[in-house]
Amino acid sequence: DSIFFRDGVRRIDFVLSYVDDLNKEWEKKLERRKEFESNLQKAGLELETEDKKESEDGKIYFVKIHAPWEVLITYAEVLNIKVPIRENDIPSMVENPLDCMLAPLRLPEKVMHPEPDYFTAPFSKEKQELYLINDKSTFFSPSMRNRIVNYILTRCPYGTEEGKKKFGIKRLLNNGTYSAAYPLHDCQYWKKANDPNCDNERYTLYMEWARFLRFYKEQPLDLIRKYYGEKIGIYFAWLGFYTEMLFLAAVVGLLCFFYGLFTMDENMSSKEICDPAIGGEIIMCPLCDRECEYWRLNTTCESSEYSHLFDNVATLFFAIFMGIWVTLFLEFWKRRQARLKYEWDLVDFEEEQQQLQLRPEYEAKCTQKKKNPVTQEMEPYLPITSQAVRFCISGTTVLFWVSLIIASMIAVIVYRLAVYAAFASLMENTQTLQPISGLLTPQLATSVTASCLNFVIIMILNFLYERIAIWITDMEIPRTHMEYENRLTMKMFLFQFVNYYSSCFYVAFFKGKFVGYPGAYTYMFNRWRNEECDPAGCLIELTTQLTIVMAGKQIWGNIQEAIVPWICNWWGRRKARNNPENLYSRWEQDHDLQIFGPLGLFYEYLEMVIQFGFITLFVASFPLAPLLALMNNILEIRVDSWKLTTQYRRPVAAKAHSIGVWQEILNGMAILSVVTNAFIVAFTSDMIPRLVYYYAYSENEDSPMSGYINNSLSVFQISDFPERNKP
After folding, report:
1. Which region among 40-54, 477-491, 621-635, 645-659 has the lowest average model confidence (pLDDT)?
2. For the Anoctamin dimerisation domain, which residue ranges apply (predicted)?
3. CB-CB contact of 19 with 30 (8 Å)
């Protein structure tokens, strides 16, 4: 279980693996590997190959890579890596008097701050005497070392094919020359390493952070940053901060829900609907043509009582509160991010460093070169005409998929209209359904089944579009890694925004608005009569839709994130269990884990931002949404940390000083959320009509809302029904 070469001195910084498959490509792959490994050695890296006979299945070769001191200091200067020059002697902040109360939530100091705080400066080979170099083998942390080796691997050439210079490990992985490339974890997650010099950071992370029983503890952000790099560290800092802020929103939402629960019996509207002398005497027009009967208003008694849970005065207050909460969340996060930037030495880390690093794919595909007017160097570039064609294809593809979502939503609406009549006649004519007919109205039955169908369609479209989005972003050939990620983010977010929220927008703002009136109903495609809202309003249906899609997405997300990798790893390791543990080497153990790809974090952010939309855009219809999100996020932090620490290969460390383009997306959603919640209160809930009645039409001073139900209805002579509408 060693992370060193056979000599026990040189540390393994990276591992490459390949399988000797004797097919027609075999000679070509062998030639590429020889050339590539020879060029790596010319770049100063040291290699050691483990023969396939040594591997557990007898098929895989492993190439272990070590970066010696000379290589590390050369590339530390190239990558502008900051290193310690002196220990920080600024006294720490004054003790917080509340610290003793928060002690149960704290982690040990050694876990929270694994190394002292230093003053740092970018590394320079000429000024080595200025830095705190006590031990050359540990001066650069393992995450810095794997970042340097990865930088060399992505730029190392391996020959010329079809007149083009070929380079980069990514291309070699794509064409099957190598099967994997990864840095090693420092030890097993469930036990410490035998080597006394090992930091056992993975074990510490597992014990103190990645177990669910630690859900109430703070996160060891400095240790996460040290082990996985700043990019992953900042994601967990954001997720933790978002979860902390959700606690306040969840408490206020719960209070609003309890207000609705305790005032249910005082709600005048549902009292009148349930009263046999009022609601029992009001006969309503059929809800569908020919199949449906006339019905009494008091049959919707129970659903009108439940709608009061979410459609009450407290909901209005909660919508205003969430408008303020979302602004505070974003502003406080900017503050927190600025603090992390300072603490993690990212203040003068410019994105330009990354922008100057061209993607190897861009350099390989752009054969034409032109002089950069700033640097006066020849650089590859993509002609304007080629860019325009690629953007046209990309834009058309995205529009096609967005229109596909809208088409699927129309199909779900047609389903709602088509099955509504079936549910209505079934519930009227089936005796076994009579006991629950008060609770399970035809509207609710249609809404629940349509929401479930909609959720299944959402998941299928998501699965297909993910692959399309990556393909069209690759086709655009973005210049830098950052540009690539931003373009993919915008495409995926636009699609998922329409995919997840379109059905909620339909129920909130369109359903029941274009029904017409008895004798002149409006029809979809001249065939299906447009559906009406429940007599108690559409808000309860929006709540149902939101609950099913939001809860379903969270459950499915956790299954995908935790259970699927665990099953894959269990299946991969089942053969290895037959061998003694001392023959199952560290590089083989890590090889059998899942890959946390370059888009691993992208999917984590996307999942959380979509959830953020659910709790801000439609929160006026469902005050319990922040509570659901809080419970999910407490689980999410531990699931993400568990899978990263135990189920995935160690990702290559990467720098980032912010959450990037996601900040702009969150700002846009915050502005939109104020508009959507105002519209829900104004158009979807019964708040405005009630207030108008209260101030303009109410005649009973003792009970101002009595008579509201009768006032909100119109009278229709059934002799005026056309033939197609008559029951």
Report:
1. 477-491
2. 4-221
3. no
Which residues have C-beta within 8 Å of that of residue 331, sequence separation ≥ 6? none
For 162-193, how does the pLDDT look when each residue is reduced to its tens digit (9 = 90+)? 667 778 888 888 888 899 999 999 888 888 88
Rounded to the nearest angstrom, the gap between the alpha carbon of residue 38 and the centroid of all alpha carbons in its chain is: 41
pTM of the predicted structure, to 2 decimals: 0.88
Asked if 202 contacts 645 with a C-beta cutoff of 8 angstroms, the reply is: yes
- Angle at 151 (CA atoms; ends 150, 156), nearest 5 degrees: 95
Contacts of 670 (CB under 8 A, 6+ apart): 326, 327, 330, 616
> CB of 39 within 8 A of CB of 158?
yes
Number of helical (H) and strand (E) elements in the chain, helices listed first: 26, 16
Structure tokens that stand for 581 in this block: 């543990």
Is 605 within 8 Å of 557 (Cβ atoms)? no
Contacts of 624 (CB under 8 A, 6+ apart): 253, 254, 257
DSSP run (H or E) holding 495: helix 481-505
pLDDT > 70? residue 93: no
DSSP states of 286-323:
PSSSSSSPPEEGGGGHHHHHHHTTTSSHHHHHHHHHHH
Q: How far apart are the first and last CA of the chain?
A: 78
- Nearby residues of 533 by Cβ (< 8 Å), 6 or more positions away: 443, 511, 512, 541
**Residue at 221: amino acid letter:** L
Q: How far apart are the C-alpha atoms of 584 and 53, rounded to whole Å? A: 13
DSSP state for residue 506 in the 8-state scheme: I
Cβ atoms of 125 and 78 within 8 Å: the answer is no
Residue 113, Cα to own-chain centre: how many angstroms?
28
For the four alpha carbons of 273, 276, 279 and 280, in that order, the dihedral sign comes to positive
Cα(427)–Cα(440) distance, rounded to whole angstroms? Answer: 9
Residue 84 to residue 61: CA distance in whole angstroms: 38
Helix axis angle, 481-505 relative to 600-617, nearest 10°?
A: 30
Dist CA 290 CA 425 (whole Å): 10
The whole-angstrom separation of Cα 287 and Cα 313 is: 29
**Residue 458, CA distances (Å) to 454, 455, 562, 610, 655 in order:** 6, 5, 21, 13, 34
